[in-house]
Amino acid sequence: MARKRIGILTGGGDVPGLNAVIKSVTYRGSEDDIEVVGLRRGWEALTHLNLDDPASKSHYLIPLDRENTRTIDRRGGTVLHSSRTNPSKTKKLPHHLVGRDFPFSESTKGGIATKTWDLTGQVLANLSGLGIEHLIAIGGDDTLSYAARLNHEGFKVYPKLEALPTDLRVKKIKYSAFIAGSSDIDAQLKTRGIETLLVTGTVTNVCCESTARDAMMLDYRVAMLSDGNASLTDEEHAASLNNFLIFFGDVMTTDEAIGRLVPVQQRKTA
Predict the structure, then answer these.
(1) CA distance 242 to 247
(2) Which residue in 161, 162, 205, 233 has its CB near the most CB atoms, within 10 A?
(3) Which residues of 106-125 are buried (b: 16+ CB within 10 A; e: fewer)?
(4) Residues 47-65: tens digit of each pLDDT
């Protein structure tokens, strides 16, 4: 039986913590016998890739494994590089696609006419040609909005990361989700009667620790999951978790947290 294959790309700005996510995905993939393909330069990899050109494949594709991702979390940014490409708004066709028929739109601003092409068909063709079954797209609103477009077209994001209809989504604008003016997460959680939080994400010693600390100060019971957070270095990760454990809350592994969860129907109430 052929191994499952997933792709991963990073789009938008080059920010800290991306390498840690890439490494985590690769390691988990190896545990589940899933092949992970890195797509370089964000969505550009899937619009500009020419599967008939070895040089193009070498430029845009990199097989990821434990060996070549072992130390990438020790430096910032993303080893896959990034771009601000939106395949549905491509301003210039790649050379090998010139003359092909793609949907396009035209607009005029300041007397200047602009033409953009929608290369979604090419993106889907390349994903099929690569044998990629699911895709992990990491980035901001523009990157993820196009991921949603692919999902609408029938190509699913990696199911273990796909948000469920019942999941609560909150947008924050500061490091801590709980600091005043950052988000409405405190009100959302209180409305649902939630008093205990398990914190995961990146970067451990920035957004995650800030959010966890402020949650504790608002009287939530808080635990940071040691294997569910990532930082730029092991030292920063460990120092942040150690500090949180001493002064603010609990630290445990994902398995330990799951082991403590009790189904609602089995809870004992006073």
Answers:
(1) 9
(2) 205
(3) eeeeeeeeeebbbbbebbbe
(4) 999 999 999 999 999 999 9
CA separation for the pair 245, 250 (Å, rounded): 5
In whole angstroms, what is the distance from residue 244 CA to residue 198 CA? Answer: 13
* E strand map for 110-175: 112-117, 134-138
Supply the Cα-derived Rg of the chain in whole angstroms. Answer: 21
Counted residue by residue, the chain has a size of: 270
State the residue for tokens 């477009």: 149
User: pTM above the 0.70 mark?
Assistant: no
pLDDT per residue as tens digits for the range 116-126: 999 999 999 99
How many angstroms separate the Cα of 216 from the Cα of each of 193, 206, 244? 16, 16, 10
